[in-house]
Amino acid sequence: MVIKVFLASSSGSTAIKKKQQDVVSFLDALKVDYTELDIACNEQNRMWMRQNVPEEKKPPNGIPLPPQIFNEESYCGDYDTFFDAKEDNAVYTFLGLPPPPGSKVGEEEGQAEGESGQADDEETEGDTPPAEEEDEEEAEGEEDHNEVTEDAVFTA
């Protein structure tokens, strides 16, 4: 699977430049393999990108702006959907990639499985662990002692 990021190497818009840099930097940080495809210097890249962005995702003028992200031929999204996925910790899902082994996403799934196993074990052991039973008995004894002391104060 090849992630394709369509960029404009010579854009006059600082906003577009920042968005492109954000996408590329984040993919680099995640060590995701991707290919940058320049739409400013390559007419074929520009035409392919424009034809393959779904109609419902195109802006009112019909010309999608970079960055646009694809997984092979499948459209992933533009910067806004990438940003939302990044905020939701769902970039791998957004890109259509499995999370790498040892990633937080993989660890969370493993922990969820482990927690359900632990809950089953705890239910079979008994209602209250012995240490808690002793604490409850001591607390009851202290309450009885306090009652006796209060009665003694009132009778004296």
Automatic annotation (TrEMBL):
Pfam families (alphabetical): SH3BGR
Organism: Oryzias latipes
Family statement drawn from the similarity comment of this UniProt entry: Belongs to the SH3BGR family.
InterPro entries membership: Glut_rich_SH3-bd (IPR006993), SH3BGR (IPR051033), Thioredoxin-like_sf (IPR036249)
Name of this chain's protein: SH3 domain binding glutamate-rich protein
Annotated spans, Disordered: 93-156
Compositionally biased spans, kind Acidic residues: 108-145
Gene Ontology cellular component annotations, sorted alphabetically: cytoplasm
Source taxon at top rank: Eukaryota
